[in-house]
């Protein structure tokens, strides 16, 4: 069986991400999609209505009979859409955190490597200790800030019940 493609998929996803859909009419979606100045407005209007029908059929939107009229339907988001929006937020959050985590871990490794290098240098040349100690203290402070940022990301992911990502963060820190 052929899959039906949702018209304006990306635009609908952006709308759902940014707005709560309560008693929206087709014209509200039309305005948010920015289709007013379109050269083929009639075709796009049909595609919008097709998209709304598909979203109702897929149980992401429902028609509110109390607010709807014979010629103008009022749409409300369903629990399925609320769950989809939450999973989209979590996905965006975890993607951003994964990239940032990789950057922070790289910085942490570099700073620890520099700290060990300076420590070895101070052991070999004790007379350099007074010059290198402030630098190692700065590196140590930077490492603590990075650790704090990693802990903050863990806490945020834990609040959103993204347990496996929290475990991934802990595993990678243990490798250090």
Short recap of the structure:
The protein has six helices and two strands; from the N terminus they run αααββααα. The protein has 176 residues and is mainly alpha-helical.
Structure description:
The protein is mainly α and 176 residues long. The protein has two domains: 9-77; 81-174. 70% of the residues lie in helices and 3% in strands. It contains six helices and two strands. It has helices at residues 9-18, 26-33, 41-57, 79-124, 129-159, 163-174; strands at 61-63, 75-77. A two-stranded antiparallel sheet has the order 1-2. It starts with 8 loop residues before the first helix and ends with a helix.
By DSSP, the count of extended strands is: 2
Q: Tell me the quaternary state.
A: single chain
Radius of gyration: 26 Å
Report the portion of residues in β strands.
under 5%
* Count of helix runs: 6
Overall mean pLDDT score? 87
Q: Sheet with the most strands?
A: 2 strands, antiparallel
Dominant shape:
rod-shaped
Order of helices and strands: HHHEEHHH
| Proportion of helical residues | over 70%
Strands of the biggest beta sheet: in what spatial order? 1-2
Low-confidence stretches: none
Number of domains: 2
Which structural class do you get from the secondary structure elements? mainly alpha
Distance between the termini: 51 Å
Please tag this protein with its features.
mainly alpha, 6 helices, 3% strand, 176 residues, rod-shaped, two-stranded antiparallel sheet
Question: What is the topological layout?
Answer:
Layout: H1 9-18, H2 26-33, H3 41-57, E1 61-63, E2 75-77, H4 79-124, H5 129-159, H6 163-174
Antiparallel strand pairs: 1-2
Helix pairs in contact: 4-5, 5-6
